[in-house]
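To fix ideas at the outset, we first show an illustrative case, written as a sequence plus integers encoding its fold:
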Amino acid sequence: MMIRFSVRLCAIALLGISVSGCKWGGGGGASPEGPGPDRNALVIEDDPFGEATREVAYLDQGWSPRDSQRFYFTSQGTQILPYDWFLVLEQPDGEGLFRDNQYMLRFRFLPQRPDEMNPHGLPVGFVKDEGRDRGWLGITCAACHTTQVDHEGVGYRIDGAPALADVPSFILELTEALEQTREDDSRFDRFAARVLDRDTPGRREVLRRQLDIVIDRREGYNARNFPPDKPAGYGRVDALGAILNEVFHEAVRDEQTPPTANTEPADAPVSYPFLWDTPQHDKVQWVGNVENGGLLDIGSLGRNVGEVLGVFADLELEREPVPPGYRSSVRVKNLRALEDWVRTLWSPQWPDGFPEIDGEKVAAGEALYRQHCLDCHRPIDRTDPGRRVEAVLRAVGTDPRTADNFWLRGGETGKLEGALVKVINPLAGRLGERAAGAAMLNHAVIGTIIGSAFEAPEDALTQVEFGERPVAVARALLGGVYKARPLNGIWATAPYLHNGSVPSLYQLLLPAEERVRSFSVGSRQFDPEHVGFRTDAPGVFQFRTHDEREEPIPGNSNAGHEYGTELSGEERWQLVEYLKTL
């Protein structure tokens, strides 16, 4: 018997209600000329945290304005809630629209003006995904991999850089808004009047049932992936934990399954990695678990498919599908295009509007870099089309929780028991009653690619690899093995270490016991001296390595990576100055 995850989603359409005549106002029209040099970025003159700018500037990263727009607004197949609903949904405890720029800025998403690819002027990375029966609100890579760095009134937008976005809080508050819409009659009346093309009692009852379905979906995802006692804060999310949870849960899910069945707490949030040079790496992810590239670039495609499966995609896992493969909402062709675009992205260089770099310090700092940093962080030519990056995987004493949660993860295989790990390759073995997370991810990703009718030969598909069990055990024994990479553009990627536990490059060069244990995250105000963001901003998230009882918070340690910590104060500043030039 086939059990489909999409039943919950498609039930909305099967209830037979039309929303084509929505009555929302505003949004503006599309510009026929396409984006200008500012990529239709909206200048943030009235920021809810008081960080206003007077203009937006883009750096030369090898992309045209159209390239940026395609990156921002090309759907990957994520489906959060019906798109029409989001346009009219009210904020929790208020009547203002949830999508109002002032409200969305609270989550640190980047506002945009309306244009042909973004007709309702949603923030960077928010798109309409055309589902089987209706449009859905989705998010793209750009929501988490585009940032803005503010300095002296100018907001520098940087494509591919780690965002400060707080996706968990956004989804939690979105769920709360939906719940209040269902429970509060006056809110529901306003919602129904805006959504329904014909407002009748019968159609309102159907709309309530639709709300139940979407709320159930969102509450289940939240329970699996957002631990209430450990908020990730700005600029972090446990993506690997969410991906594994969604695959493991779907493998056992039926109508009676609790929403957290076959899952583990997604309690190891990491910073969003920067994307430039990612297609040129041989291994990707913080833990270096994904083989990149390969024939037809299948490794890269597998990595991107896995990401979408963990972030609100619709997936159908079934027992012994014929033909092999699983149906999903994942836009495989779009993911291939996005990878091709990112391949041409360059790292950003220190802006002319920032304080001038000291040449003498740079020369001295380069010598220090070669002495202390070069083994793990080998320079590359940021614009070389043929550049390649070999992963350096080492345990350097940083927090092991992210690595342990992935490499040691296992769970029940449910309806996938007995299925081929690599779907079409019997030599890779079969899934037992229980399986490692990497094996389940291999199976789900390959099945998704095949189910999308992606034309790849079988030998290419079987190259998709998220980590073999012997490797997993060895990595776990070493404790906290993470991937190092070239540091070009590193100045634009604070906070530092995989878990975002160190606020600036200067702090990273201090001995671990001298690094700050608490600092604010969420301010876009750049500190060009220490190279990081402002760390004493009011009203934003406070990152802590220890709780109120002075107990270490698992996953938040700022220890390790103690390279160059024996430098003198003057040498430390010289090395920081050199890092600005990369």
